[in-house]
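TOPIC: backbone geometry
CONTENTS: sequence, structure tokens:
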Amino acid sequence: MLGFLVVCLVRTMNEQQLTDHFTQYFSLKLADTEELRQQAYRVRYDVYCEELAFEDKSQYPEKMEFDEFDAYSDHLLLVHKSSGLNVGTVRLVQPSVSSAVEQLPLEKFAGHAFDRDIFDLKALRDKKRCEVSRLAVSKHFRRRSGEQSVPFTTEGVDVLFTDAELRNFPYITVSLYLGVAAIFELKKHEYSMVMMEPRLARRVSRLGIMWRAAGEAIEYHGLRAPFYITRDILLNNMKPGVRGLYEELKGQLKPQLGLD
């Protein structure tokens, strides 16, 4: 449904209209201060601890969900402009190539899911690699029917917003993925990885975001499989309408990363 909704909008708007329509209501913010990171952690706590019980909320008395990987991650917040609400968050975990200690979450928790004949995770320890992780969308921007058990939306919402705003909500998950993709490109990483539901990978592939399977699905907060992407795969397959939004989000993030 996600891919269908976005593709329909791509067909009815030109690239600039599509980008303008989205950015009228949302902005992407690099959580580069402790205060902003704590806002991201609160969104994660609400979703992963309170709503889904993926994590034990008693371990987070300050109502902020965080872990060891946050210290070497870039965090994003998607902000709803008119309300000032944090719509969602995602992080890009980026271990240092020179560190013998830093690793990706999936290296620690799901390394066994990778098929070494397809993608040898251990052989990439000396490569610039990263992982898309902890994507979470506030319950105010997710459907209550059919979306209660997932941390992000793929279709719509059931709260009171204008019709124009409602048309943009299918983009929430997409824009967060595009935001970390922009960091991936701007920081010149070689590989990005993710643990994702195979059906979500199929949906985003309709947008030209071609995650490649790297192993079999396992139980990992639901049935998820490892996927990877390179810069060439990302940039060479993106649909034109989505490309416009990607370039807009990259433009928003570049000065925030100090790369002007």
In short: Residues 1-12, 144-161 have pLDDT under 50 and may be disordered.
